[in-house]
Each structure stands twice: as structure tokens, then as C-alpha cells.
Design goal:
By secondary structure, this protein is mainly alpha-helical. Helices cover about 60% and strands about 5% of the residues. A two-stranded antiparallel sheet has the order 1-2. A two-stranded antiparallel sheet has the order 3-4. α2 packs across α9, α3 crosses α4 and α7 packs antiparallel against α9.
Length: about 220
């Protein structure tokens, strides 16, 4: 009887755990991803990353789920500073952060529409993006490929930055860029973290009080 129950329990647990295993297996990559170790609490890093995004990415890509004034509020800028630094005064604070490329140009140049990057880190993960933007290599003179996504349509936009930077500077720049994309993917992440420990602390206090109340109610009842 006991063995039959254990077999049934194992079978049920197997069906519950199996989908999670398949999800993890499907999310694997053929190469080992570099660790970015970014920090969304680092406001200066986010500011540098935002300007790198404006200078190297916004020609093709957008992050159109966030407005300039939200970026300003979270990154310690005024609305005017955010508009000046990111759009070069070509937008309003209430505008979404959109690409400067005209519709259809990306399709004509690269054969594909450049995707919006608002949720890229949440879909792919920070380490994937970090490894991808650092993963370009020159197959032959003037022809680039990427070790993460072979045959990618995206050109090596950071080539000039890498050529004119030290290794340490390039490491910091790519970390800052991923850090900004991580922030854009969930602008309220820091607030959620700060609220989370307060909620847990409240639940622990409530649990303690509930336990003490239960003991008080049951102390005179014989078991």
C-alpha cells in the first residue's frame, strides 16, 4: 500500500517537474555566455548606458514602452536633460523613446525590421545580450559575423567604440549598455526589490503574532 502511494506520488511529481525541465533545456545556448554582472541601482552606469544606446542603437532600434520623462525621473535627469542627451532635442518629454530611422528603411537595408528592444533582456537574458554585442568577429576584411547568432543582420555597431577604447573601457561600456536595457525591461525593478523585503518582514511579524495568539487561545485546552 505504501509503495503504491509512493509510486503515484513520484508519477505526479514527474508530470509537474517535467515542463520546467523542458523549458530550461529549450533556453540553453550552444556557447557559454559571458556574465555581465550589471547593477540597476548604479545610476551613473544607467546614465552612461542610456547615452550609449542613443548614440549607437537608436539609429535603428527603439525602446518605445518607456517615455523620456520616465527615464529622466529614474536616472536623475531633468526632463530637458533626458530629451537633450537621448534625442538631441528632437522629441518631447512625454514622447516614447523611438528610433530615428524612418519606417521601411531597415527592411530595405538589412532585409528585416529592426526590433524594439524594450523587453529584450527579459526575453533573452542580460548575459545573452552582453555576449551578443561583444561576440562579433571578422571573417574576412570588412565582413563580420557573430558567435552567438551566426548570420545576424545587425552590423557591428560597436566596432569603432571597441577600436578606440581599452579593454577595460569597452567592458564597462558594454556593461552600461546592457544595464540600461535591463532597466528599460522593468523600470520599477528597484522599487519592487525595496518593497519586497518590507512585505516579507511584515509577514514574518504577522506570523509571529498569529502564533502567539494561537498559543494564548489554546493554552487552557487539553489535547
Amino acid at each position: 500500500m505504501k509503495n503504491t502511494f509512493l509510486r503515484k506520488l513520484s508519477l505526479v511529481l514527474g508530470f509537474v517537474v517535467l515542463p520546467f525541465g523542458l523549458v530550461n533545456a529549450a533556453g540553453g545556448y550552444k556557447i557559454e555566455l559571458e556574465k555581465v554582472n550589471n547593477n540597476v541601482r548604479d545610476t551613473q552606469s544607467l546614465q552612461r548606458g542610456a547615452m550609449l544606446f542613443a548614440n549607437y542603437c537608436m539609429a535603428c532600434h527603439s525602446v518605445e514602452l518607456i517615455r523620456y520623462n520616465r527615464v529622466a525621473r529614474n536616472l536623475g535627469w531633468t526632463d530637458e536633460q533626458a530629451v537633450e542627451k537621448l534625442s538631441f532635442n528632437q522629441a518631447k518629454p512625454v514622447d516614447y523613446v523611438k528610433t530615428r530611422m524612418e519606417p521601411g528603411v531597415s527592411q530595405d537595408l538589412f532585409g528585416i525590421e529592426a526590433p524594439d528592444l524594450s523587453l529584450l533582456t527579459r526575453v533573452k537574458g542580460n548575459d545573452y545580450i552582453y555576449t551578443f554585442i561583444r561576440g562579433y568577429y571578422e571573417e574576412e576584411e570588412g565582413k563580420w559575423n557573430n558567435k552567438v547568432l551566426a548570420g545576424t543582420s545587425m552590423p557591428n555597431v560597436l566596432e569603432g567604440l571597441k577600436r578606440h577604447s581599452t579593454e577595460q573601457e569597452f567592458d564597462q561600456a558594454t556593461t552600461d549598455l546592457v544595464n540600461f536595457l535591463d532597466y528599460v525591461g522593468e523600470p520599477s525593478k528597484v522599487q519592487r526589490w525595496d518593497l519586497g523585503w518590507k512585505v516579507i518582514l511584515f509577514l514574518l511579524v504577522l506570523l509571529t503574532l498569529t502564533y502567539l495568539l494561537k498559543r494564548e487561545y489554546w493554552k487552557d485546552i487539553k489535547h
